[in-house]
Amino acid sequence: MNWASAADFWAMGGYGFYVWGSYAAVVAVITIEIWLLKARRSSAVAEVKQETMRSAESAIKLR
Amino acid sequence: MTMSSVSVASSSRPGLFWFSSPQAFFPLAGKMTPWFFALAAVLAAFGLYIGFFVAPTDATQGEAYRIIFIHVPAAWMSMFLYLVMAFWAAIGLIMNTRMSSMMASAIAPTGALMTVLALVTGSLWGRPTWGTYWVWDARLTSELVLLFLYLGFLALQAAIDDPRRADKAGAVLALVGVINIPIIYFSVQWWNTLHQGSSVSLTRSPSMAATMLLGMLLLALAFWMYSIGTALHRVRSIVLEREKRAEWTRELMAQGRLK
Q1: Distance from CA of A22 to the nearest CA of B (A)
Q2: ipTM value of the model?
Q3: What is the reported pLDDT for B189?
Q4: Which of A43, A59, A60, A62 is nearest to B247 (CA)?
Q5: Which of A2, B8, B28, B252 is the most buried (most CB within 10 A)?
Q6: Which positions 108-127 of B are in contact with A (Cβ < 8 Å)?
Q7: How much is the average pLDDT of B99-116?
Q8: 3-state secondary structure string, B183-241?
């Protein structure tokens, strides 16, 4: 076991800012990317929905 | 039979090019995506446990070295994803397969984010070990050029309205930029850099403790699986964007299978 206590763990031998800063950057990037993925998916689905409604409307007009 | 299904069902059995059709690849990618994210989470959990609780303190760098568990995987993925992106872009250019080009476009944002992570974690590692956040040496500069290549690819594709023309232009840029990958990789040998040489090599045994190496490799695998997951998720959105007027996407929508 490397750590005597939780405080010891968070201190990272005095390098806490750099170590946890790096891991925080990873968490931030993953959070941002997943948010971007979801946003892109919902706008893509909305575009398909729009096209579906448009084609349904034109089918009704043709009739 | 409708027009859109003719192109897919032209051969009775699924052959080599079956999944090069967006309509066939779309559901497959959807089934695979959660598995890759789950694998990434499991591998990351094991890797982080080994990295923080099993791997010993480094003799010269103390605990600061623990940045390696994410810095090296991010840096590897930044280069590897570029090669995969350029590969699919080239296939799209040569074989004229739309799905390949869409895959290249789907990889680019994840590659750019991996490059950002490699640069940020490297800078946070450089400060305590070298005494500086940034230095214009060959390794750091060529990695920054990689970020600009990804951003250039994304900006170029975003600027061209016709998707097939955007694919072609992006492919040319991606292929020209491939030259930067060996420059990044060998920069620590070719030039006198502040950045250390590689700790892991195919030709000699690694210059780090076995548990350190194991933690790093597990996280590298986790980053790899995550990247596949994000690329598959994004490529499905790209397929929908481009196929929104196709019969099959509207059918999926009508059946309530698009959410």
Answers
A1: 5
A2: 0.91
A3: 87
A4: A59
A5: B252
A6: 109-110, 113, 116-117, 120-121, 124-125, 127
A7: 98
A8: HHHHHHHHCCCCCCCCCCCCCCCCCCCHHHHHHHHHHHHHHHHHHHHHHHHHHHHHHHH
